[in-house]
Predict the 3D structure of the following.
Amino acid sequence: MTKGKPWSLELEKQLKDLLESKTSLATISKHLGKPEEAVRQKIRRLGLEVVEHKKIVCSTTSNFVMPQELPSVEETLRKLYAALTALETPGIEKSEVMRLRAIIQGAKVYKELLADYMDYRGLEAELMEFRKKYEQLASKGLSAPL
């Protein structure tokens, strides 16, 4: 088995401090520049405990808050930009990357659906205007050519 660089007293102290602050194993590994398994073994050798973060249980039931007005395309693009910028942060955890990617995908879909909705609303407004003009012509006894 190949051994890595030995642990200095300073690295051991950092490890203890990170464990006391309940930092995850993955974050400790990145911070110390050591493989997770090496960190896990060192923790065992020092007689320390690894903080195990509970897995988030996903559910298919959600309580959605219905907005009074739909967010604009500009607001959605701002969220998209913020998520893209956050992805550039070095060392972010995998769960955060997945969350940001979901926000990006959702923002893209929302923008497309909002654009379709705005087109339909424009067509609906035009149709209502034509109906109104037709009713005005019909009430005057004139018929509009179809």
Notes: The chain has two domains: 9-45, 73-139. The longest helix spans residues 94-139. Helices lie at 9-20, 25-32, 36-45, 73-87, 94-139.
